[in-house]
Specification:
The complex is a heterodimer of chains A (161) and B (511). With 161 residues, chain A is of the alpha+beta class. Chain A contains four helices and eight strands, in the order αβααβββββββα. Chain B is mostly helical and 511 residues long. Chain B has a domain at 1-107 and 156-182 and 476-511. Chain B is built from 22 helices and two strands. In chain B, a hairpin with a 1-residue loop joins strand 1 (407-410) and strand 2. Chain B starts with 6 loop residues before the first helix and ends with a helix. Classes of the chains: A alpha+beta (161), B mainly alpha (511). At the A-B interface, strand 2, strand 3, strand 4, strand 7 and helix 4 of A face helix 3, helix 15 and helix 16 of B.
Amino acid sequence: MKKVFRFLFFLPTIYYLLSTISYAQPISSAELINNAKQYDGKTVVYEGEVIGDIMVRGDYAWINVNDGQNAIGIWMSKNLVKDILYIGSYKSKGDWVEITGIFQRACLQHGGDLDIHAQAIRKVRQGRHVLERLNMGKRNLVFVLLGVLCLVWILKQLKLK
Amino acid sequence: MILKPRLEDIKAIGYYLGKIILGLGLAMLIPIIISLAFGELNPALDFLISIEIALIFGLILVKLCFSPPRARGAEFTEKDLNWMQGMIVVSLSWLAAMLLGAIPLYLSGHWKSYLDACFDAMSGFATTGLVLVQDLDHLSFTHNLWRHLIMFIGGQGIVIVALSFFVRGASGAFKMYVGEARDEKVLPNVIHTARFIWLVSVVYLILGTFALGTVGVLNGMKPINAFFHGACVFMAAFDTGGFAPQSQNILYYHSLPFEIITIIIMLLGAINFKMHYHLWMGNRREIFRNIETKTLFITVVITFCITAFGLTQIGSYPKAIVLFRKGFYQLISGHTGTGYMTIYARQFINEWNQLALVGVICAMGLGGAACSTTGAIKMLRIGIIFKALKEDIKRIILPERAIVIQKFHHIKEIFVEDKQARSALLITLAYLVLYGLGAIIGMLFGYPFLDSLFESTSAAANVGLSCGITDVNMPAALKLTYIFQMWAGRLEFMSVFTLVGFFIAAIKGKK
């Protein structure tokens, strides 16, 4: 009888712990998207590069974080984005951040978007500007093709005359 | 008896193809201007190389296929094209556009192979929207603009560009215009029609870019990004293409107003240019009377009911606004042939049930209006088939002596004729075969039936919604299959069949 009572006491506790389980290891975007139902409403850790824009909306902001496979929208307090200095684009590598937050398969607050509501953000690696060096091979090819083009043009004009 | 093509045919085809290639080369000047504005050096080199290659090939073709003036002063390569020549010029122009348009993409290093770059180039020109690009979020402004510009060019029609600026003879121009799946003239002269299509598109481009850019700024984007994205998204939405500047497609913006504006632009793109003309002329009643808009409304309602019922069955999106932003958005995007997405590709398979997917597949297969930028079967044909069916049923029900006639309103009152119904049914059948063929090939590579049918319909109907099959790692043969489907689907078969016939005649024909 005592065992039964103990079991009945622990059952809701185990259920509660399982339902609010958090995943301490970073989970990839592909894993989150492919198993969205499994992670829905759970606290997850996700990391990747901040890309595009920081879109401030009132006291909150949207950032999009790409882990190399997909980008996922992160909804967070405006205060949390202050540390983000670099955003990924053609001319820069964005900051690599680790997000801890609640994963939503179809967020009711945001029209059904698959997103993460961030509770904490940690910068893993700072981004940087990407210096663009002129590709000499391409430059030389431009000149060679220009020569060929001029030759074709001259031949065309000559024959026409 | 099949006759071998004459040298005169080959020269006429080559001459006009050369001119169109020259036009394409000149279009690459626009990204170069952008590269200079944004200070992107290597992308500028990519486009310089591509322009030079295009100009070299174009000049050689024009030179080789040019014939000197004859006794009466006419150059036969500049005479009006016949139907066969016009159709072949069109089909080859699209292949040439794919091969040349892919060069700057491949040189950027964001595409794993030249085949992948060709896939995206054909997807762009055919306004499909399926992509194999890698690391899109770090792509330059220059290349990103080119991706969207090719949708704008392809949506109006590659040949329309040439018609507007290069082609002299009106009769030859009409044959190329028809070859590009545009069998309706807005204005009596086809060159004027081509220019009107450009006028409509440019006016909407300015308005659409302003609207999307403003929403972008209000959503917190940097103004330069907001307006650049606005222009790109407009070009892809109005031309029912589906490319977007970021890898998340429209999900990137997390914005209801942005989604609503793109829905409006997609619908504008799915409307017949003839309808645009009448709306511009103040004839607003046409929109309520026209068979195409009526059919579009009915098919959207039916397919959305199917999709919504499916989604409600599994409770994927419990709130009405969520159902609108996820269910209705993907559906209208599919129906107009755009392919904009606010969900991830795999969510179709993982979170939508089969009924919801069938609703979207049907919508994709139907398409928008004739003489619009959409692909697929198109509303006019569906309307005509329905009317013809109604006529036949009436004939059976009514007494034999009763005279049964059916008419429909498309700018004017038109009587349904057997010839129209036959033509509509044949093209519909050809599309259904193309959808099925792609699905079978997909299944041969081990993909499930519904996934294969979804992706195949999306490619052949020039939609661009993906359930995840389109991927850089998919077999090369499947990439080639989808390229063929996009090409044949965009040109509505006739010019592709003519090209096949031309090659058969060249091999088996008699002199």
